[in-house]
Write a structure and sequence with these properties.
2 domains, 8% strand, binds zinc ion
Length: 301
């Protein structure tokens, strides 16, 4: 009984499904002509037109948006001009996301592009003024400057103890030696040089005063003896120093007739500490330090 009932129910259900599928199709066909032909024809066309309008609006807005993005990109590229690739990539991100935020990011981008340019010059300058050692000798002249940060603050202990020994030996012979001018900071040399330039002009000042960073006095390895005067060479102290200072590790740094090589006029009072061995070798060579090391002493600016 149950099998027959279920079989009958299944047959009825399948027939109902078939009827259902056909019924809906028949209903549409029947209903459509039932309505007025005008309304029935307009309805799909209107929807299509509306869709087209909507699509057109969307297209227009999209075009406008893309155009805006393009123009903003172009303007930013023009204003930035030479910008590093990394910076440009950073600016492209906010541009594609939203032009409004891109406006906000513009000022910091400009400052970022300006900052590296300044840093590059600073870095280049510092590379130029690294202390130069040739054969273990710290060279300070018109070609090789010291950085502003190079500041021992006083004569080095080796320099000062060598001077005391020399002064003691000279004193034993009845001669008085004293340090007229020892260590000079970068800023002090800057003030001195600018004062000389103001009074004598730069060309004259360059013959007797070092530009800031180019003075051996900043190294703590050089000092001026007694009187800063040409007459010092003719004094007993001056003559003794010229003949004996190398025994204590010093050289007369700017000898006579070497002005075109050292870049400075004869300075019998200015001594440079090199250590006894090197100072003696330089003294016996008859060369100035630039000749001895095969280097120049000329400003590049
Ligand atoms: Zn000096």
């Amino acid at each position: 009984m149950s099998k027959k009932v279920s079989a009958m129910l299944a047959a009825l259900l399948s027939f109902a499904v078939v009827l259902g599928g056909c019924g809906t199709e028949n209903l549409e066909v029947k209903v459509t002509p039932g309505n007025s032909p005008e309304t029935s024809e307009k309805t799909p066309e209107d929807t299509a037109n509306q869709q087209e309008v909507v699509e057109e609006k969307v297209d227009v807005t999209q075009e406008i948006v893309t155009e805006q993005v393009v123009t903003t990109e172009e303007t930013t590229v023009l204003t930035e001009e030479v910008t590093q690739e990394v910076v440009t990539e950073q600016t492209e991100k906010p541009e594609t996301e939203a032009p409004v935020t891109e406006k906000v990011t513009e000022p910091p981008v400009v400052t970022e592009t300006q900052a590296p340019q300044e840093q590059q010059t600073e870095v280049f300058y510092e590379q130029e003024v690294e202390p130069t050692y040739i054969n273990g000798i710290l060279v300070v002249n018109k070609t090789y400057p010291l950085p502003e940060s190079y500041a021992p603050g006083e004569l080095t202990s080796d320099t000062y103890s060598a001077f005391k020994k020399m002064a003691a030996d000279a004193y034993a012979e009845g001669l008085n030696l004293w340090v007229q001018s020892g260590y000079r900071s970068y800023s002090l040399q800057k003030d001195l040089y600018n004062r000389y330039v103001a009074s004598d002009g730069q060309a004259a000042a360059d013959t007797y005063s070092a530009r800031p960073g180019h003075s051996e006095h900043q190294s703590g390895l050089a000092f001026d003896l007694n009187s800063i005067s040409d007459s010092f060479a003719d004094t007993a102290e001056g003559q003794w120093v010229a003949e004996n200072c190398h025994k204590y590790g010093f050289i007369v740094r700017y000898p006579k007739s070497k002005e075109h090589i050292t870049g400075y006029k004869y300075e019998p009072w200015h001594l440079r500490y090199l250590g006894v061995e090197t100072a003696t070798a330089v003294y016996e060579s008859g060369l100035c330090l630039e000749e001895y090391l095969g280097i120049t002493s000329e400003y590049s600016y």
